[in-house]
Amino acid sequence: MMFLTSESRYTKITIAGRNIRNHLPARTWKQELFVYDILKKLEEYMVADLRQEIEKRRTFAIISHPDAGKTTLTEKFLLYGGAINLAGSVKGKATARHAVSDWMEIEKQRGISVTSSVLQFHYDGYCINILDTPGHQDFSEDTYRTLMAADSAVMVIDGSKGVEAQTRKLFKVCVMRHIPIFTFINKMDRDANDTFELLDEIEKELGIATCPVNWPIGSGKEFKGVYDRNTKKVMTFSDTLKGTKEGTEHEISIDDPALEQEIGADACSLLKDEIELLDGASAEFDQKLVTKGELSPVFFGSALTNFGVETFLHHFLKMTYEPLPRKADIGQISPFSEDFSAFVFKIQANMNKNHRDRVAFMRICSGKFTAGMEVKHVQGERAVKLSQPQQLMAQERKIIEEAYAGDIIGVFDPGIFSIGDTLTTAKENFTFEGIPTFAPEHFARVRQVDTMKRKQFVKGVTQIAQEGAIQIFQEYKGGMEEIIVGVVGVLQFDVLKFRLENEYNVEIRMENLPYEHIRWIENKGLDPDSLTGTSDMKKVIDMKGRPLLLFVNAWSVGMTLDRNEGLVLSEFGRE
């Protein structure tokens, strides 16, 4: 809102709660009215500019099983958006370029993505934020948590392998959030499974209806391109220089006699038969069902050779929306609110080993961010100045002056922020819906080799746990003498060992534990000692003092529930 008050021969103007320092002379009421009209138009322009900036934002995560081509697809997006000139190779990283989205030392050594990268680029009038989640064999809880900051998800599937284990896990989180899910079936330039069987597998395995937007013409050496069901045109592609977007793209109508010469008589005949079958059997496109996460538009292509990548990006941007309202304890928070608000979804320490820094990544949910602005840290009950605001392109940092709802920014964290914290400039305090703690699947008892380095050990383990890469537990009614580490993927044990040795100079010894299931006790005030469990059940507490139960197998979980009437156990820890 704008307020105007008279101060002697000067006019004091407040726009959106901010006083304009350069007071303007106003000797007469006509002059005051003139100034008021001008500034009112200025305020209207500022509000319109805020809306325009937010409306062009698209924030999505890319999920996949290892080696499905997620990082390659991400880099091709950046390539088309002009953010990079040459895509890095994700293979042979000992001698080749590192992928742009891989930055941690262990990632460069192994050629995998361990942490989640945040990448921004502009394309066709949109400002796009990609949350690039890990795609290695084992991933961390950070992967799940990153999906809490996305408005939609792109699911990358290897055409020769179909739906795989990690894809299922990540898909469940997307379903929990009811966000739109778009499918890109990759590697069609290699021998792929039958296309109809791939769609059937997605629907049966994941329980979501599919609607192909385009259709592949062959696979492997016979891959000719894709057919767009909307334009009814076939797009044929030449193989490209794999790290570039060079190459020819040729469109031919499905009814054009020249199509047969272009792709061959057999391929043309098969394509027309498949289109006829597809039109009669597949689900119709319904934007409402897509928005609710009940229908997944499906695209085919090859990220490595650029087949179908830009086509997918174009359709995807048209089918998605600007940032949506976020649920808070006082109701929905509109992204177009003039008040800035955000929540912390990721904390990363020691991104620069030389500086031992700590960065809190936050998703802006409403309003506009400006560098150096002071906000309320709701959980900390204090005012904080957000210093060193930055956006990242992997290891490269860019200091920013402003950002809008939908954007992801990183700010310097002196150790005051936690996952799920809310920050806002609104007068009324509120907190966004908490980020769940996801159940680890692998556990180990961890000790430092050198007892004299106990302090560094506890500090390192605690800090890495605060980032969300691992979870740490203590024996029930025990102390920090025995630390049990839980991870979603076993590679995080290697990451923990590597980081403690390289960043904290602490060598550790790990003892793997047989537990595979962990459950939070939902019954408030329940004494874990009163429970009748199985012989393999172990009682622990997490960093927040909440009681949990560890089990060797699913049978033990079920038996414990049967023996304790009214007991409620959860796979998610909630705030």
From TrEMBL:
One GO CC term, this protein: cytosol
Name of the protein: Peptide chain release factor 3
GO biological-process terms attached to the record: regulation of translational termination
Domain Tr-type G residues, every copy: 55-324
PANTHER family in the record: PEPTIDE CHAIN RELEASE FACTOR RF3 (PTHR43556)
Pfam families assigned: EF-G_D2 (PF22042), GTP_EFTU (PF00009), RF3_C (PF16658)
Keywords recorded for this protein, A-Z: Cytoplasm, GTP-binding, Nucleotide-binding, Protein biosynthesis
Broad class of the protein's primary localization: cytoplasm
Binding site for GTP: 64-71, 132-136, 186-189
SUPFAM superfamilies recorded: EF-G C-terminal domain-like, P-loop containing nucleoside triphosphate hydrolases, Translation proteins
GO molecular function: GTP binding; GTPase activity; translation release factor activity, codon nonspecific; translation release factor activity, codon specific
Gene from which this protein is expressed: prfC
Family, similarity comment: Belongs to the TRAFAC class translation factor GTPase superfamily. Classic translation factor GTPase family. PrfC subfamily.
Cell compartment(s), UniProt: Cytoplasm
Function: Increases the formation of ribosomal termination complexes and stimulates activities of RF-1 and RF-2. It binds guanine nucleotides and has strong preference for UGA stop codons. It may interact directly with the ribosome. The stimulation of RF-1 and RF-2 is significantly reduced by GTP and GDP, but not by GMP.
